[in-house]
Amino acid sequence: MLTDYHVHLRPDDPDTDAERYFTAANAERYREAASERGVEELGVSEHIHRFSAALDVWQHPFWRDSAIDDLDAYVAFVREQTDLRLGIEADYIAGREDRMASLLDVHEWDYVVGSVHFLGEHAVDFDDALDVWRHESSAERVWKRYFEAVAQSALTGMFDIIAHPDLVKIWGSARPQPDSDPRRYYEPAVEAMLAADVAMEVSTAGLRKPVAEIYPSRAMLEMAVDAGLPIALSSDAHRPEHLAFGYDAAQELLRECGVSEIAVFERRERRMESLG
Ligand SMILES: [Zn+2]
Ligand SMILES: [Zn+2]
After folding, report:
1. pLDDT digit string (tens) for 150-169?
2. Who's near 231: CB < 8 A, 6+ residues apart?
3. pTM of the full predicted structure?
4. Which of 67, 169, 71 is nearest to 116 (CA)?
5. Rounded distance from Cα 166 to ligand 1 centre (Å)
6. In this structure, which residues have their CB less than 5 angstroms from ion ligand 1?
7. Which of 54, 74, 101, 172 could form a disulfide with 211 if both were Cys (CB 3.0 to 4.6 A apart)?
């Protein structure tokens, strides 16, 4: 079994309106790409900040600019016009847990992908004035805050999969790196994921980013495997050609780290299936 669950039906650009991308024909393009690459379990997980209902959770300027689409219409489209699993990528926003939980509770998802992109008002993956690196004193501070947020995200119980679990490394050598062994940052995050009984995502999206490395690092994956965490596999595709991108490398890494099963989701029930 191969899965691709953390998948977007459109690029993140602002002019990618729902009418053009939430269509049966577009879903079919993704389904065809998945079939070609041997991915049986395919689902979508649009960014929550692209839906107007997200503004009930958080009024961040970036969200206000992008929260346009109707969440109910997305859910109805996936359920009625496609054979894809229905997911959503929802942010962990500190202090907004109850509001996010209320929003997520309205719909019957197959899975909810939980992500940490923001630390306070600033993002770890933005290359602009909102970039957290322009507002923090050291790499140690950014990494510590990031992995603490990952731990908190797991402990909310809102999420089934913790996405790109070391996204903070996205810029690679283009941003400061912590001097010390990063395992000290991973440890509380892995412990929290275990306590919360959530799956940790292995994402090939990092291969397409400056860091050019799978999320998470081998050291973090080894720690997760030692702890007995369930692993979910996705590409974070934003176009059909990204589907299952780098899966040969991901499968090699997973096998080397002793992962033989991956998590499969339906109506928020998790089961494990053989990898490959
Ligand atoms: Zn993300
Ligand atoms: Zn994503």
Report:
1. 999 999 999 999 999 999 99
2. 199, 200, 201, 202, 221, 224, 225, 254, 259, 261, 262, 263
3. 0.97
4. 169
5. 11
6. 115
7. 172
